[in-house]
């Protein structure tokens, strides 16, 4: 059995900024701030602590992310590691298929689910508390649905914990928990400076951002709400796209290559030229994908018979993917292609399908570089948060290439 008092002492000495997270009993606990402050680690530990400390309750902790595919590499692995660090692995029954970790002692469990796994969510009963990781990925209606699930009397505090970075001051989370808060809200802000476990190198990386990407620095280092200032796209709405909205529209597809450090990003997009609307319907975004894996993913989406326009700097990859039976061509690029792509996209209303969470992160961060001398915004984008966005530029290239007098008809 772990020594819970020792853990309390550990929090007091190593993570004093997070003590209120353990003491507070509000229904809504908003743990927000900069990147790398220790939010996820502390909340995972808090849930485990509660499970062990409140052993008279058969806890059902629901651990949520917007999309299921992001669970395994984030919250699942984190909780598994912490259980192991606490020397409790043999006390838990871990079922990766069901996404549950059951404490053999009293049957209490952690249940992991993406909000897109509707059937699974429906079957879950008797939830005693909820943790939503990267909560800005959720739409307000997602949160409201979850909120209704946490009901009943279990002899313990019922709490919904949201962990998040303050990506945009326009976000509904700011509205309902900060500006005009609903009842029962507790908020705690931390930054990497509150994290005793962060190394000097990370501090240096953050510090460098002050110059290279001040907008990023403001949100992820200082933990301040992101403003629209300097943001390239302010014309994006994320919501569920109904398939009947797409009927009769021209569809295009784009692919940006990455591997170790960057993800490969693919999108399928529909264009309504008359009403100036772009619907980004589907896609994938993942590191470490081989050309074979990219081909399979495009086939899984049943989009291999439609033309994909890809980053032309990787002709070898394009050939390899083509050899797998996927229709694909290199983007034309050329002078000013980035800016004319941005001009084109800025002119449209962009509607982003709800499950493409990484895409929204890019839209919320893709920004104009600041001139270091004058401190003014330039017309050059910062080369960051642009994988999905580049793939969208390639996808729509025939529309803006036309403007530049380039290839007219690429299909
Ligand atoms: N209690 C802890 N014990 C050991 N290491 C920790 C602890 N808390 C945080 N860390 C270290 O600090 C790093 C950042 O912590 P964490 O991922 O929890 O930050 P975060 O605030 O959730 O960041 P983000 O906003 O990017 O999601 C972790 O990768 C881990 O190495
Ligand atoms: Mg985190």
Report on this model:
The protein is an alpha/beta fold. It has helices at residues 4-14, 19-23, 39-53, 72-85, 118-123, 140-149, 172-179, 200-212, 214-221, 291-300, 315-323, 337-346, 357-363, 387-395, 397-403; strands at 28-33, 60-65, 92-95, 100-103, 109-114, 129-132, 159-164, 185-190, 236-239, 250-256, 264-272, 277-286, 308-310, 328-330, 349-353, 368-370, 377-381. It folds into two domains: 16-199, Rossmann fold; 236-403, Nucleotidyltransferase, domain 5 (2-Layer Sandwich). Helix content is 35%, strand content 22%. Strands 3-4-5-2-6-7-1-8 form an eight-stranded mixed beta sheet. Strands 9-15-12-11-10-13-14 form a seven-stranded mixed beta sheet, sandwiched between helices. Strands 16-17 form a two-stranded antiparallel sheet. Strand 3 (92-95) and strand 4 form a beta hairpin. Helix 8 packs across helix 9, helix 10 (291-300) packs across helix 11 (315-323) and helix 12 packs across helix 15 (397-403). The protein is globular and about 65 Å long. Residues 406-411 have low confidence and may be disordered.
